[in-house]
């Protein structure tokens, strides 16, 4: 099912959570709503679900205006950040809930419900834990039960609010790959909210970057990462160094504040060398080296006194044999220029 | 092992070793505990013992005949009727109030919370008087009620009203913090899964608050049966007609019929003991429930 949000605005008291948001989600897509806290991403998700009603704007499912329908009538699957499992029910009862509360006329038979729950338990690989209570499960298991519960009613849309937010790093990684796989199998139109850019870029077909109640950019992961539409997007999707300066004829001029332009360079797009290469470069002194992990992170002090972050592969680091307090040259490989400085 | 060794080296006597940073020296502990025990003995256990010994002072036959007396039976019946109406009413009001206050934000919420506490802060006698001033013969609605031959004051409806008013906060107070702490997520989940409002309440909200609810009902019932002040004002003390148990006890006592007075009083005392027992059982059960869940949670 396709989803359209047209000109959605929502205020909470003085706080504008959403301001004129327009978004189109295609049938079968897996879309991430990405943004910092307070950017309105969760509010937008809840508006789509019918758990929140916008002050103005329209929500359409398959082109049909459903703005006035309640959450119950919209028949979406919703997965909550803190799972919201029914604590007094077993895993089995939790998953069966949506089918059991149906009016008698459309309620499946006992056997059918049982079969459906068993099928979902297989899908989430928790067949042996059907009689456990939510409090007896780990965070990752609970989240999978929450997902199965949402899928049991066969919704046409699956909405997930920070689905992996409360889990530890390792389980997170596992579960998000599993979600991607699951989506490839069942192709249900899905929207998930996250503040983790890595998660959004890895899992989603398209990423919607939000900031202060507005959409900054919508695009495929590589598109938003490589061609950010605004300084905010560039900043939010990875670590970044900011320089005042300008770019003319492919030549970068740094430390020219009068231009009003800001140069953005990702740490891995700065190169450290012992000798200048004739192109753009500046001098810096190595302050800190952290070589734990696949990338070596170097902090250097530029000649004008600002701190600069550089990342390089271990191999390059071994070749250079950098030491602390050494004077080096830093060469920007790719620079992105935006007109005005926005808050980082 | 290491700890013991260090302490021996310090040469400190074992008794002076504090079990924890917050515990006091032995003599202070015994002083505090002793004070508490003496206080409980004088103000709780002795009166309780007096009630039962006085009740049985003239023998078992006097005791039972005092309870079988028609006026006593009428008082017991009326007390049961008043509690039997007031408690279910407050059950509904309490759940409704807790639901509204715990789950929603609205203008005047803190004012409403204060209103719910009003029966606690107003003297019961005043509560009774309010009803006399409204429904009494000289009261606001008095002439109209008299014209339609409806008796509220000095009759059962007045007693039920006064009891309901005085015991109103018990269930609501018990439930509000509980409902607030649980938030809305489970209800929202139920709604997205297609449950109706009633199904959500019955299958999700109610099971989550059942222990708190039971606890509130027990307290509410105890107070409803024991209420004296407000009921005393509206009842008119008509023997066999508008006397509840506490009022009946007062009348007997004022007539120097000590043994029968204490006999009926012992029934209320037994009710109090039963209430305490039920309350403890419910507390134990709900704590056990929570502990069980926590333990199983750790194991998983």
Structure in words:
The complex is a heterodimer of chains A (344) and B (300). Chain A is built from 10 helices and 19 strands. Chain A is of the alpha+beta class. The model of chain A has no long low-confidence stretch (mean pLDDT 88). Mean pLDDT of chain B is 84; it is low at 1-12. Chain B is built from 14 helices and no strands. Chain B is mainly α and 300 residues long. Chains A and B meet through helix 2 and helix 5 of A and helix 10, helix 11 and helix 14 of B.
Q: How many H/I helical runs of chain B?
A: 14
Overall pLDDT of chain B, averaged? 84
Distance between the termini of chain B: 32 Å
> Most extensive interface: pair and counts?
A-B, 34 and 22 residues
* Terminus-to-terminus distance of chain A: 37 Å
Order of SSEs of chain A: EEEHEEHEHHHEHEHEEHHEEEEEEEHEE
Strand content of chain B: under 5%
| Poorly predicted runs of chain B | 1-12
Strand order of the largest sheet of chain A: 6-7-8-3-9-10
Mean pLDDT of chain A comes to 88
Rg of chain A, rounded, reads: 24 Å
Give the low-confidence spans of chain A: none
Total strands of chain B: 0
Q: How is the topology of this model organized?
A:
The complex is a heterodimer of chains A (about 350) and B (about 300).
Chain A lengths: L2 E10 L2 E11 L4 E5 L6 H9 L6 E6 L2 E2 L5 H4 L2 E3 L11 H10 L9 H14 L15 H14 L4 E5 L7 H18 L2 E6 L2 H7 L2 E6 L2 E6 L1 H6 L4 H6 L4 E8 L2 E4 L7 E4 L4 E4 L8 E9 L4 E8 L4 E7 H7 L6 E6 L3 E3 L6
Parallel strand pairs in A: 3-8, 3-9, 6-7, 7-8
Antiparallel strand pairs in A: 1-2, 1-4, 4-5, 9-10, 11-12, 11-13, 13-19, 14-18, 15-16, 15-18, 16-17
Helix pairs in contact in A: 3-4, 3-5, 4-5
Chain B lengths: L1 H9 L15 H30 L4 H9 L1 H34 L5 H13 L2 H12 L6 H6 L8 H12 L1 H14 L2 H8 L4 H30 L2 H7 L9 H10 L3 H42 L1
């Amino acid at each position: 099912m396709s989803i359209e949000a047209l000109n959605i605005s929502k205020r909470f008291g003085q706080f504008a959570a959403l301001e004129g948001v327009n978004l189109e989600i295609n049938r079968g897509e897996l879309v991430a709503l990405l943004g910092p806290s307070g950017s309105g991403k969760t509010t937008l998700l809840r508006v789509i679900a019918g758990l929140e009603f916008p002050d103005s704007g329209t929500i359409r499912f398959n082109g049909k205006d459903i703005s006035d329908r309640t959450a119950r009538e919209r028949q979406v699957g919703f997965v909550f950040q803190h799972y919201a499992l029914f604590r007094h029910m077993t895993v089995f009862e939790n998953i069966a809930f949506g089918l059991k509360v149906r009016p008698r006329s459309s309620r499946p038979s006992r056997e059918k419900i049982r079969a459906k729950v068993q099928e979902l338990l297989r899908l989430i690989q928790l067949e042996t834990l059907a009689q456990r209570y939510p409090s007896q499960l780990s965070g990752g298991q609970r989240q999978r039960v929450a997902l199965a519960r949402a899928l049991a009613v066969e919704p046409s849309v699956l909405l997930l609010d920070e689905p992996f937010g409360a889990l530890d790093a390792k389980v997170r990684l596992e579960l998000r790959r599993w979600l991607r796989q699951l989506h490839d199998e069942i192709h249900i139109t899905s929207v998930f909210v996250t503040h983790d850019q890595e998660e959004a870029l890895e899992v989603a077909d398209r990423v919607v970057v939000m900031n202060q109640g507005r959409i900054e950019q919508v695009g495929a992961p590589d598109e938003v990462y490589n061609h950010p539409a605004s300084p905010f997007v560039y900043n939010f999707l990875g670590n970044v160094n900011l320089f005042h300066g300008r770019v003319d004829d492919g030549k970068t001029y740094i430390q020219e504040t009068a231009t009003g332009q800001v140069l953005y360079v990702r740490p891995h797009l700065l190169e450290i060398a012992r000798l200048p290469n004739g192109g753009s470069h500046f001098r810096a002194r190595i302050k800190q080296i952290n070589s734990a992990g696949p990338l070596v992170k170097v902090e250097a002090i530029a000649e004008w006194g600002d701190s600069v972050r550089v990342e390089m592969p271990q191999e390059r680091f071994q070749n250079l044999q950098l030491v602390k307090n050494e004077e080096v040259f830093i060469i920007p490989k790719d620079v992105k220029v935006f007109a005005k400085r926005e808050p980082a | 092992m290491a700890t013991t060794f260090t302490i021996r080296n310090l040469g400190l006597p074992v008794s002076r070793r504090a079990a924890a940073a917050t515990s006091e020296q032995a003599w202070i502990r015994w002083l505090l505990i002793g004070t508490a025990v003496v206080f409980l003995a004088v103000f709780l256990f002795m009166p309780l013992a007096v009630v039962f010994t006085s009740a049985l002072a003239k023998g078992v036959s006097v005791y039972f005949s005092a309870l079988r007396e028609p006026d006593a039976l009428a008082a017991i019946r009326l007390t049961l009727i008043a509690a039997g109406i007031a408690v279910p009413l407050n059950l509904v009001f309490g759940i409704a109030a807790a639901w509204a206050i715990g789950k929603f934000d609205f203008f005047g919420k803190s004012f409403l919370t204060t209103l719910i506490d009003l029966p606690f802060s107003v003297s019961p006698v005043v509560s009774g008087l309010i009803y006399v001033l409204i429904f009494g013969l000289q009261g606001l609605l008095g002439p109209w009620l008299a014209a339609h031959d409806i008796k509220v004051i000095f009759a059962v409806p007045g007693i039920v009203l006064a009891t309901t008013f005085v015991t109103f906060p018990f269930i609501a107070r018990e439930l509000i913090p509980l409902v607030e702490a649980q938030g809305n997520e489970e209800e929202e989940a139920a709604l997205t899964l297609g449950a109706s409002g009633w199904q959500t309440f019955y299958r999700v909200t109610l099971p989550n608050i059942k222990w708190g609810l039971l606890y509130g009902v027990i307290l509410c019932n105890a107070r409803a049966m024991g209420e004296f002040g407000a009921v005393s004002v509206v009842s008119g003390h008509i023997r066999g007609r508008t006397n509840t148990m506490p009022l009946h006890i007062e009348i007997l006592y004022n007539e120097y019929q000590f043994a029968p007075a204490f006999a009926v009083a012992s029934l209320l005392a037994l009710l109090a003991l039963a209430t305490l027992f039920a309350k403890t059982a419910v507390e134990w059960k709900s704590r056990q429930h929570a502990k069980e869940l926590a333990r199983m949670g750790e194991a998983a």
